[in-house]
Amino acid sequence: MVGVGLLLVAAGAGFWWWRGRDGALPLGGVPANAIALSWKGKFKGSATLPATVNWCPGSRVAIVEGLSNDTGFVMVVHAADTLAKGTMSVLPAEFIAAAGGPRPAASSALRWPADTAILAGYRGQNGLVELVPQGGLLSATFTIRMQPPMSSDTISVTGAFRNLKVESRAVGC
């Protein structure tokens, strides 16, 4: 009995480690150059989207975008100085945009076709992002609570992106 109990505990611990400490996808489970995410709440769904990251060193802002057809996810990372490894809070965009807004911090948005006539749109209210920059590439895991404008409905979004090439494509940044 003790052996079976230890085996079950080990299997549970292995699954917890594989899923990540906060339920986010492990980086190894995400294709390179993509964002994988899932959401639950009033609506449930998931998507794996081809992704890019555009870094503007002047404003110290990185825009991570994943888009496929009508499904899209964006995360705007407001770095303190550079894209550094570590955990940052997700806040509503209007809090970060205010003069002297907190850094490092991130804002986010998600849209998808909820049915044939509705394009659901949600924006990040709070959460955490764990950034992992390495050798010109950016990876991250995240958990975000999102809400549509003018509604109290919420969804919980977990996801990750892996090995996005950090580029500076914006004119004038």
Describe the structure.
- The protein is globular.
- It has two helices and nine strands.
- Strands 1, 2, 3, 4, 5, 6, 7, 8 and 9 form a nine-stranded mixed sheet that branches.
- A hairpin with a 7-residue loop joins β8 (137-147) and β9 (155-167).
- The model is unreliable at 1-24 (pLDDT under 50).
- By secondary structure, it is mainly β.
- It has helices spanning 2-19, 93-97, and strands at 34-41, 45-56, 61-68, 71-78, 86-90, 105-113, 119-134, 137-147, 155-167.
SSE blueprint and pairings:
Blueprint: H1 2-19, E1 34-41, E2 45-56, E3 61-68, E4 71-78, E5 86-90, H2 93-97, E6 105-113, E7 119-134, E8 137-147, E9 155-167
Parallel strand pairs: 2-9, 5-6
Antiparallel strand pairs: 1-2, 1-9, 2-3, 3-4, 4-6, 5-7, 6-7, 7-8, 8-9
For this entry, give a set of tags.
disordered N terminus, 173 residues, 52% strand, mainly beta
Low-pLDDT stretches are 1-24
Task: Name the shape in a single word.
Answer: globular
Helical/strand content category = mainly beta
Gyration radius, to the nearest Å? 17 Å
Number of strands: 9
SSE pattern, N- to C-terminal: HEEEEEHEEEE
- Please summarize the sheet with the most strands: 9 strands, mixed
What's the pLDDT, averaged over the residues? 84
Amount of helix: 10-25%
* Tally of helical runs: 2
* C-alpha termini separation: 64 Å
Strand content: over 45%
